[in-house]
Amino acid sequence: GLEGGLEDGAWRGKRLKGAMLNVYTDKVAKVQSKIFVTYDDRTLYVAFDLFEPEVDKMVAHQTDRVADHDGWVWEDDSVEMFLDPADGKKGPAYYHLIGNAKGVIYDARVKDHAWESQANLAVRVYKDRWVLEVAIPLSNMGVVGSPKGHTWLANFCRNRQVTGETEDTSWSDVGEEFHSWERYGHITFK
């Protein structure tokens, strides 16, 4: 189950390679994040291990999981996931999820937030980091059966607000726009 921690052995060996880049400078982010991806026949699981030397200054304006759903979560300390099971073959057809440190979620298909992921989110804040785990039903992304052997277009991003000016970081080099889907990376499910 999700508990907002990475102690679970299911995450071992599931970390994505590569460093997070600051989208404005193209340099490696000062404060790094680790991303983990795994799956079973029904669910995609993503975990973010987010180093944060100033957890007491984290921003979370969206605090109510129900009332603030699909609100401006990206303006908080948050993470974003862009997932395209068609691997870009259908043009911009990605699913977009954002979660903040209070467990509030925004979900959309491209920019249509009428789409509901039915994702479960768990967050835990430590003294030097925060961890977010999310479980997304594959069927809600149009995936039938296991993704094993398939390649998806994907990107994973972080909005770090504690410094007073946003430090946006990205796993794929997308320039300054997280929605630049043509520049997302690829993940292959083994």
* Helical amount: under 10%
Largest sheet: 7 strands, antiparallel
How many strand segments?
A: 11
Q: What is the oligomeric state here?
A: single chain
How many alpha or pi helices?
A: 0
What radius of gyration results from the CA coordinates? Answer: 15 Å
Task: Report the uncertain regions.
Answer: none
- Calculate the terminal CA-CA distance, rounded to whole Å: 21 Å
SSE order, as H and E?
EEEEEEEEEEE
- Gross morphology is globular
Q: For the residues shown, what is the average pLDDT? A: 94
Strand content: 35-45%
| Broad structural category | mainly beta
Can you walk me through this structure?
- The chain is built from no helices and eleven strands.
- The protein is mainly beta and 190 residues long.
- Strands 1, 4, 5, 6, 9, 10 and 11 form a seven-stranded antiparallel sheet that branches. Strands 2-3-8-7 form a four-stranded antiparallel sheet, with no helix packed on it.
- It is globular.
- The two termini are 21 Å apart.
Question: TL;DR of this structure?
Answer:
The chain has 190 residues and is mostly beta strands. Helices cover 0% and strands 36% of the residues.
